[in-house]
Amino acid sequence: MLKVYLDGEYVDADKAAISVYDHAVLYGDGVFEGIRAYDGILFRLEEHIKRLYDNANAIKLDIPLSMGEMSNIVVETVRVNQLRDAYIRLVVTRGKGDLGLDPRKCLKPTVFCIADKITLYPPEMYETGMKVIISSIRRNRGDSIDPQIKSLNYLNNILAKIEANNLGYPEAIFLNQEGYVVECTGDNIFIVKDGILITPPVEAGALVGITRKTAIEIAEEKGIKVQERLFTPYNLYTADECFLTGTAAEAIPVVEVDGRLIGDGKPGPVTKLILSGFKDVIKVKGTRVYE
User: What is the pTM of this model?
Assistant: First the structure.
């Protein structure tokens, strides 16, 4: 039985529970991180923890633990469950309150951490590439709920995912309110055109992805020019390559969007180079769970 960290204790996963009055349940009020462990190494743990605290600050949620204490919780949760390859979900909620909206009624945030086996895209998809669509659901505006905040309210993403599921696709791409490509329901997006790697700026409505940052670093180390700039579906349809980055995906190639082949319809050389580069970065940018 897996153990879940919950407010200072490790409890059996099937007994881990929070109050129905927690504002995470009532209003999606809280923040989270998804972290990956590779053979006992937590990838860029410090950066995930820093982003968690930044996002909590953005919604005025005071976390009752230091960043060092939070990092130790993640390490220990993986260790307690004797996992080496894992996905970790770290969550901070507003806590138990009443049925009203006022967050001041929530006196103590709830903190829990889950470590479990990771579900990956099928290996063959990295060889043949993924087919995706552009969603009719638009990314929410930054002046309402900023997409840079990794909050517990993911309904925008879920609605786009439902659309993709209904049409038989594994992923959907968001456009923002101005019609520019921003990201997918769970991944950042990159295209390659004339040897230049291009990704939307976070200001357009994309999450500040840690795997996204890693892909940019790998590209720059390999001498590939990188641009963070706006582009439209036309630029996506006419790209030489396209790939998605995320905690579980790393860098997964996209070979078709809305029925249009990307490049020659096969994973491209830049995509393969970025994906292979992850193996070198993990050990350098990781925190060891087991000494």
Answer: 0.95
